[in-house]
């Protein structure tokens, strides 16, 4: 009986992750139909937007070709151009009208779904179930084609600039790989070559480097090529996996400044993974600290550095080199890092924590919000300020 109960609870939890409080609805079939219908409409709207992008680019290229001063077209050729432009225009208007109709339908459905949700707000389980609902996108549930469409928005800059570039390809071919894979040229008013050259210019790479191979460049230049490759497909989100750790300190500052400039110019979001705390402080708006694969603290960069709430964070920040010789401020942690395969019970950090008590071995600390925008996983985080340097 207990096993059946456990399986039912697990099934309900998974369902609540998707539906939230709608699981309480008397007519869940009707609600699910509306939710799926709304998703289907939004999918069609996005497909139409993609088609409109391609059609607008096609129209622009036809207009450019027809107006090219280097070619003298006959009246018949000009009529052909105008006819082709008119056909594209008709398709554009048709897709725009269809999208307006679909948008009106999805707006109506969204209002109905919102009212159905508000009707359940009086239930005692409403808040609990709504909080269980996943707010983000579970990438593991996407199909191959959905994941492929999403990859253009998410790119990666690798740690090692030496092994992450194909030695058989030129710089132009390396940067252009993503353009071909995601058909970016047909979605842009610029040609394939122009996109590559503009991206190279943004990343501080000269045009003459286009036909050179990776072995002809220094580590810093290779990392710039890696950045250009990620940037070429116009992503919204870039994962920087120890993007400067393999470079000399003088080159690190150049690459970090480049990343900051690109972030501001292209409105990018970075997930910057690093063990170098001084680099993290320089580039990050928000900082998440992990220990043995678990997040132990999250907050705004200035807040985390000024007032660390987790003992591990405080020990890390104390290890940043300083020119101040006046007093000790280094906190040395005792013991060895435990195995991630067989971690200690309760809090994983307890075997090295100066605040550890019996409660730490018994219960895993909840990762909770203790201040607006500040999260920490520690039973006794209020006492972190009392930890003194060794």
Task: Give a structural overview.
The strands form two sheets. Strands 4-5-7-6 form a four-stranded antiparallel β-sheet. A three-stranded parallel β-sheet has the order 1-2-3, with helices on one face. The model has no long low-confidence stretch (mean pLDDT 86). The relative contact order is 0.06. The protein is 50% helix and 9% strand. The protein is of the alpha/beta class and 390 residues long. The protein folds into three domains: 119 residues; 138 residues, P-loop containing nucleotide triphosphate hydrolases (Rossmann fold, 3-Layer(aba) Sandwich); 100 residues, no CATH class. The protein is flat.
Question: Mean pLDDT, rounded to whole units?
Answer: 86
By DSSP, the count of extended strands is: 7
Specify the helix fraction band: 40-55%
Helix count from the secondary structure assignment: 13
Describe the largest sheet.
4 strands, antiparallel
Q: Ranges with pLDDT <50 over ≥5 residues?
A: none
Q: Order of strands across the widest beta sheet?
A: 4-5-7-6
CATH topology of the largest domain: Rossmann fold
Quaternary structure classification: single chain
CATH level 4 superfamily of the largest domain: P-loop containing nucleotide triphosphate hydrolases
Kindly provide the name of the CATH class of the largest domain: Alpha Beta
End-to-end Cα distance, whole Å, is 54 Å
Strand content: 5-15%
The shape, in one word, is flat
Tell me the layout of helices and strands.
Layout: H1 2-19, H2 28-66, H3 75-118, H4 126-132, H5 144-151, E1 154-157, H6 171-181, H7 192-202, H8 219-231, E2 237-241, H9 249-266, E3 269-273, H10 277-283, E4 286-291, E5 294-300, H11 301-306, H12 311-318, H13 358-362, E6 368-371, E7 374-376
Parallel strand pairs: 1-2, 2-3
Antiparallel strand pairs: 4-5, 5-7, 6-7
Helix pairs in contact: 2-3, 6-7, 6-8, 7-8, 8-9
